[in-house]
Structures are given as C-alpha cells and as structure tokens.
Amino acid sequence: MNDHPGMGEGERSVDDGNDEVDEVLDVDALPGGARAAIEAVLMIADEPISDIHLASTMGLTIERVRSELQKLVADYAGALDSPVRGFQLREVAGGWRIYSRPEHAPVVEKFVIDGQTAKLTQAALETLAIVAYRQPVARGQVSAIRGVNVDGVVRTLLARELIEEVAIDPHSGAVLYGTSPLFLERLGLKSTEDLPPLSPYLPEDALDSPILEATDNEPLARRYRRE
C-alpha cells in the first residue's frame, strides 16, 4: 500500500498494482461522488464485496470506504433525513451486499411468484433448450454456446424452477445444471429421453458443430447427434 497525496496522517490507499488507472479514476468527480460510485458497484454485485476490494476499485482509502458504507447503511434506514428504503446494506460473509428489507418480504415473494407465470423471453428459451439437450452443463458452457453472458437468464430459470443444480464438475468445480421435474411436467414428458430429436431442425453442417459434440457425461447430445 502507498501513501496517497493529500491524505491525512494515518490514512493509506489500497494499491491494486495499477497506478495509471488510480490516477485516471476520480470517483469524487462522478455524480454523487464516492458514495454513489460505491452504491453503483454494490447494486450489480451478486455476492458480498469486501471493503478492501471496494477501496482498490475506487482508488480510495479503506477508512474512507468504510465511512461511506456506514453512511449508506444509515441512509437506507432513514437516519439521514431520508425515507426508509425498501432495501438495506448488510455486512455478510466478509463483505457488503444490498438486500431487500425483510419487512417487504411478502410483496417481494408475491412479485416472484407472479413473475413465474409470465412468458419466457427468447434468451431464456434458448438457454433452457441448451440445458435440456446438453445436460449436465455448466453455466460457462451455455455462455460459450450462446455467445453472451447467461448469468441473469440462469437465475431466472432457477427461480422458476425449470432447471436445477444437479452436480459439480470434478475437474473445474463448476456447478452443472439440468432440467427439473417441473420442466418435464410443463412439457408433458415422462423424462428427458422423450425430448424430440434436434437433427430434423438443423442444417446438415450443424451436426458436426462442437455444440453437439458428444462426451461421456452428455448422453442426450450423443443421442441427438446420432439421430
């Protein structure tokens, strides 16, 4: 860690090994300043972020980050002349993450349940099809096939209980996904073996695509490539 110009005695910045980025990034010059910048990062995080990580990202001292985090906690709780928010900032598992406020659990639950009856988007349908025919499959493999990040879509399919975690890849440690009993129920199938073959709906050269490449743990891909 290096002393940062203009900082008070005892304050130190977190050096992430890229001084050039730290010199360019001035979070205090952004709308809302450093506090809003920290908030923006927390809003898109899907796991707790440590104050050290935030300090490194923002180019701020850990003391400054911790102070801003506590102000966000107070702000969301209505302690800074602001209304109580429907969400709160909590310190969990060695980091910080924004959660919906427990008091609003009933309305959040109703929203999630109501959302399960909505139609799936094209992206969700494509992802679900890949999981169905390639299972068990890791999220990274699905992303590689679709050419886009599928984290949000996978979370949606999990929330709707159309897919589920079925195993852990022994080599990479990645979670492997497969279709759920609800998926079979919705399609009126007894098992995944009743899924229609893909080959009649694909161009001839697609049958040699790595997407349908057979492996030992992909019996469905092997079956439909053969038909």
How does this structure look, described?
With 227 residues, the chain is of the alpha+beta class. The protein has 2 domains: 19-101, Winged helix-like DNA-binding domain superfamily/Winged helix DNA-binding domain (Arc Repressor Mutant, subunit A), CATH 1.10.10; 116-226, Arc Repressor Mutant, subunit A (Orthogonal Bundle). Helices cover 43% and strands 11% of the residues. The protein contains 10 helices and 5 strands. The protein has helices spanning 19-24, 33-44, 51-58, 62-76, 105-115, 122-134, 139-146, 151-159, 181-187, 219-226; strands at residues 87-92, 95-100, 137-138, 163-168, 175-179. Helix 2 (33-44) packs across helix 4 (62-76), helix 3 (51-58) crosses helix 4 (62-76) and helix 6 packs across helix 8. The termini are far apart. The relative contact order is 0.07. The model is unreliable at 1-14, 16-22 and 205-227 (pLDDT under 50).
Relevant terms:
alpha+beta; three-stranded antiparallel sheet; Arc Repressor Mutant, subunit A; 10 helices; two-stranded antiparallel ribbon; 227 residues; 5 strands; 11% strand
Would you spell out the secondary-structure blueprint of this structure?
Layout: H1 19-24, H2 33-44, H3 51-58, H4 62-76, E1 87-92, E2 95-100, H5 105-115, H6 122-134, E3 137-138, H7 139-146, H8 151-159, E4 163-168, E5 175-179, H9 181-187, H10 219-226
Antiparallel strand pairs: 1-2, 3-5, 4-5
